[in-house]
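Postdoc handover notes: sequence design on the structure in folder B. Input tokens:
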């Protein structure tokens, strides 16, 4: 297939800075390959004078192979690699300049985490307050932004001051160990150039042409590296799409692409707007949504693929309706499409659970792309292990999993001694720890370790007692709090930890759904149902699968049939984006990315009621839906939900109204770990309607209803922040009254 006129123009551009704004599905990889080939074939440029960088090894390998198809062995002399691979090659050559030997070690994420834990121990800092994952996040972010340990900004914040001190020690240990982490590779390459102008000049002279793929995803350090290397020839060609910049949370800086013409006033800008993937209806809808952003360079995608079908938009009453709509649509599409041709995209990992349950019910094989199935996620496995231990403490596998989760200072050596004693005495693991001080076990543990084990046994006893008294639908929240698991995640202060909390609140929804269907259900039967659900996931590797993934993971992929679910305020756009206009714009770009993955059929869904953060929320349709012209949409209302413009059937989302944005529904997470008294005394704190209280998981709220008077069976309905309502057992909610 011939290049189109704009692609041809990009390939033939010879010298000077060039920005190729490559829309979704516009054939940018082909343009990059053809440009490199042309530089070598007719431009008289040697392959070793060309540097091409991208973000994945797979992309770099594919580009090199495609160049080799035209240029043969000469392609081997290209400097074509990821940013990290390029910098590693550079640093191996010149390590001695930075006082490293050439065989320095690369620390991966786990190595990083281990070193941080050692430093925390050396500095006598608690790893429950200074979570290693949180410290790692701050260090990596600083390196992405080109910030040295000595310049780490704290803004007067005590926690960040400590992070800065840990960062400084971390860097000292890296140097001492002759090691670098991934962030160091780029930071140290910049340091190398700063320390040795001769080396910088050598590579500036060598790289006469520099090409950068996915430029919208570069961070500040990567930007500085490219600016420095391209400073002599200024033959820098960057390819990217400002409308697909969705990795701010990883350090991506959208200003890099938006300000390219400021950095290079002589730059030529070529827009690749012809799309080879989608139908025109899908593109028109996507163009309309992204047009709502003000921080963009502007382009309009078009195609010769034909108009295609309108977007199928479904409005349901509940998230169960949404899941049923997706499954029924998948089954209806099977006459024409393979399951592997279909994908379901969602904004947060927690949303996959109800979809997975429905797919299993309809016997539709699926896989979680780039992720872990809901019941296999670590936090769900941890909670399942707690519940299994309460039901059967002789279950050694579950017991071992939770003995030191969250961390209680019970180490591997202690576990091995308990195991040995159990084997020697033909006892089970629980028998030993429940009478750990019994001399017959001959454990030889110090007093501190024995106390920690005894405290754990008391925790299990307390939970078992509470299980007899607390309604099952309240027990999980109680479990999260009493074990310290929720507080552990809160202390991490990372997006990943927040996602794990969302999965835990979704797990409470699993239990709620089970109890709704089984009024006399027990914990034992609930665990049986989950185990059976997990067992059905073990499918033949050759099975045709529907693909499930977050929208972030969908970037770079395409499918004939796409389902984009959960388009509601607070979910998509996510509630975390409400405070900053630039974050809302990133959410809109994310929506655009999801929509433009579809080749032939795009389904979008939203619902009136969704279980979020542990309770039923009344949802309002996403603002992004208002931006799609009606002529590109077919409303699906198989489940009785009103079509746009129809008479109201349910009190629900107002798709057509943008007069005011809905009240946000942000998960209430305690800002600090709070020790709440297990024994609540009504005599000390009278419970009244209107009283303000704090809950360890849901945060601060107001009591709006009391049922059952002052009896042990009393229940209170509390309205927490951002519209979250929860009915809790007064006796066991462990509420703290706020004066």
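Designed sequence:
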């Amino acid at each position: 297939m011939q290049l189109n006129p704009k692609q041809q123009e990009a390939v033939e551009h010879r010298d000077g800075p060039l920005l190729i704004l490559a829309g979704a599905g516009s054939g940018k990889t082909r343009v990059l390959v053809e440009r490199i080939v042309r530089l070598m074939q007719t431009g008289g440029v040697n392959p070793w004078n060309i540097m091409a960088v991208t973000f994945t090894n797979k992309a770099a390998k594919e580009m090199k192979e495609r160049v080799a198809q035209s240029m043969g062995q000469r392609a081997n002399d290209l400097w074509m690699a990821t940013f990290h691979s390029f910098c590693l090659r550079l640093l191996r050559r010149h390590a001695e300049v930075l006082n490293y030997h050439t065989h320095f070690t690369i620390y991966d994420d786990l190595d990083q985490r281990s070193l941080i834990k050692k430093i925390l121990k050396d500095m006598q800092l608690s790893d429950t307050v200074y979570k290693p994952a949180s410290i790692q996040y701050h260090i990596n972010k600083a390196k992405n932004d080109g910030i040295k340990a000595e310049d780490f900004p704290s803004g007067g914040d005590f926690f960040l001051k400590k992070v800065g001190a840990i960062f400084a020690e971390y860097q000292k240990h890296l140097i001492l160990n002759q090691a670098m982490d991934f962030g160091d590779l780029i930071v140290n390459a910049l340091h190398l150039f700063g320390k040795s102008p001769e080396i910088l000049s050598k590579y500036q002279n060598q790289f006469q042409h520099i090409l950068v793929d996915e430029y919208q995803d570069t961070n500040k350090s990567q930007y500085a590296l490219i600016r420095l290397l391209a400073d002599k020839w200024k033959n820098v060609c960057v390819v990217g799409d400002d409308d697909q910049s969705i990795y701010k949370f990883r350090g991506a800086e959208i200003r890099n692409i938006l300000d390219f013409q400021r950095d290079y006033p002589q730059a030529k800008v070529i827009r690749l707007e012809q799309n080879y993937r989608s139908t025109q209806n899908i593109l028109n809808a996507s163009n309309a949504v992204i047009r709502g952003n003000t921080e963009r360079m502007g382009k309009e995608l078009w195609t010769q693929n034909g108009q295609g079908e309108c977007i199928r938009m479904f409005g349901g009453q509940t998230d169960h309706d949404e899941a049923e709509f997706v499954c029924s649509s998948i089954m209806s599409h099977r006459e024409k499409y393979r399951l592997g041709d279909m994908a379901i995209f969602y904004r947060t990992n927690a949303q996959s659970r109800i979809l997975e349950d429905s797919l299993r019910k309809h016997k539709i094989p699926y896989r979680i792309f780039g992720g872990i199935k809901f019941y296999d996620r670590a936090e769900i496995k941890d909670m399942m292990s707690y519940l299994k231990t309460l039901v059967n403490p002789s279950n050694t596998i579950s017991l071992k999993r939770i003995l030191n989760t969250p961390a209680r200072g019970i180490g591997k050596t202690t576990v091995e001694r308990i195991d040995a004693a159990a084997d020697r005495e033909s006892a089970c693991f629980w028998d030993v720890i429940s009478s750990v001080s019994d001399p017959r076990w001959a454990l030889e543990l110090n007093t501190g370790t024995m106390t920690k084990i005894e405290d754990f046994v008391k925790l299990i006893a307390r939970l078992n007692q509470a299980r007899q008294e607390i309604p099952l639908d309240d027990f999980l929240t109680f479990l999260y709090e009493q074990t310290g698991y929720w507080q552990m995640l809160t202390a991490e202060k990372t997006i990943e930890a927040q996602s794990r909390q969302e999965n835990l609140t979704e797990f409470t929804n699993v239990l709620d759904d089970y109890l709704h269907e089984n009024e006399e259900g027990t914990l034992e039967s609930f665990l049986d149902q989950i185990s059976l659900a997990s067992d059905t996931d073990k499918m033949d590797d050759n099975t045709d699968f529907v693909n499930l993934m977050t929208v972030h993971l969908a970037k770079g992929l395409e499918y004939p049939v796409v389902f984009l679910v959960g388009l509601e305020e607070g979910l998509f756009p996510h509630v975390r984006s409400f405070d900053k206009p630039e974050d809302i714009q990133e959410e809109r770009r994310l929506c655009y990315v999801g929509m433009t993955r579809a080749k032939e059929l795009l389904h979008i869904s939203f619902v009136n009621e969704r279980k979020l953060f542990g309770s039923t929320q009344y949802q309002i349709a996403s603002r992004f839906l208002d931006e799609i012209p009606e002529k590109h949409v077919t409303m699906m209302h198989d489940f009785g939900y009103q079509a746009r413009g129809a008479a109201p059937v349910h009190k629900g989302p107002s798709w057509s109204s943008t007069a005011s944005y809905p009240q946000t529904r942000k998960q209430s997470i305690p800002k600090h770990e709070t020790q709440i008294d297990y024994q609540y005394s009504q005599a000390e704190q009278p419970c009244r309607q209107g009283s303000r209280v704090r809950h360890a998981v849901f945060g601060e709220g107001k009591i709006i209803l009391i049922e059952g008077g002052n009896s042990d069976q009393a229940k209170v309905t509390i309205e927490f922040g951002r519209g979250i309502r929860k009915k809790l057992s007064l006796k066991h909610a462990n509420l703290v009254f706020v004066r």
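Context for whoever picks this up: The domain at 105-177 is CATH 1.10.10.160 (Arc Repressor Mutant, subunit A). Don't rerun without checking with the PI first.
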